[in-house]
């Protein structure tokens, strides 16, 4: 029994090493969202495109959809753009956007070049609405359920792997909840 | 020689350099008391772009936006705690440079104390186990007369 006391440091070491092993696999630049499972913040943004739709919290209810925060000056946004195009055009996912601190003419030129995957784009020129969303860098992408709650957040560009492993299965299961 | 001169020059430059402030003149509030509160609150808030700087130190555009936001909330009549809650509601506890004391952070705050106590316990047990071997203590056998004679003889030979 007394011998157990000598094994204690080893036990402590194993526990600590376990914590560190998990901690080291995490990306410290990804901050978990405080808004997961909470309703989207109250906001209204004017449309970026003259003949297009703006974005407001009321429009994020009723169906499962994505909200993508992007800017024409953001390099990783360019990387994820084809992925979003495929999601919108081939997989039939509704993608809406917040255009973050951008010049409207730059954003419009950018969409003309790469295509426009967005069903609606709200222009957040001073970035104030994005703060309410907890945005701390572009791009960021949110999965919104039919009740208008944020269910998942991707920080950084949406990559095909992320889509296959997390986003599409989540959308499918959220839509399943809706029908069931 | 030139090395020494260079080192002195470098030291002089470091000594006279003034700290760079991230807070821009146009952000500063007119009320000095409220501005001081804003500065104190800003020092508590992490800049999420650079992560190990506070928004008071950081030049990142988001840090500037948050500094302006902090000041807007103060002008709107929020207390210091309310401003911190406002930002935490959007960015989570991670935005606080000083982690709050709550169920999920007990290990963080109490861990070091627990380790210290465990160490003290270990040290106490270790020292208690050693005590019986102390020379001349209880349980030590005194020398027999023959041993004492031999010891005296050896000591005399030596001198």
Automatic annotation (TrEMBL), chain A:
Its main location: other. InterPro entries: Periplasmic_diS_OxRdtase_DsbE, Redoxin, Thioredoxin-like_sf, Thioredoxin_CS, Thioredoxin_domain, Thioredoxin_ResA/DsbE_sf. Pfam families: Redoxin. It comes from the Bacteria. GO terms for molecular function: disulfide oxidoreductase activity. The keyword Disulfide bond applies. GO terms for cellular component: outer membrane-bounded periplasmic space. Keywords: Cytochrome c-type biogenesis, Disulfide bond, Redox-active center. It is found in: Cell envelope. GO terms for biological process: cytochrome complex assembly. Residues 34-172 form the Thioredoxin domain. Belongs to the thioredoxin family. DsbE subfamily. This is Thiol oxidoreductase DsbE. It comes from Skermanella stibiiresistens SB22.
From TrEMBL, chain B:
Residues 11-155 form the CcmH/CycL/Ccl2/NrfF N-terminal domain. This is Cytochrome c-type biogenesis protein. Belongs to the CcmH/CycL/Ccl2/NrfF family. One of its GO terms (molecular function) is metal ion binding. It is a single-pass membrane protein. The keyword Signal applies. Its main location: membrane. The chain crosses the membrane at residues 106-127. Keywords: Cytochrome c-type biogenesis, Heme, Iron, Membrane, Metal-binding, Signal, Transmembrane, Transmembrane helix.
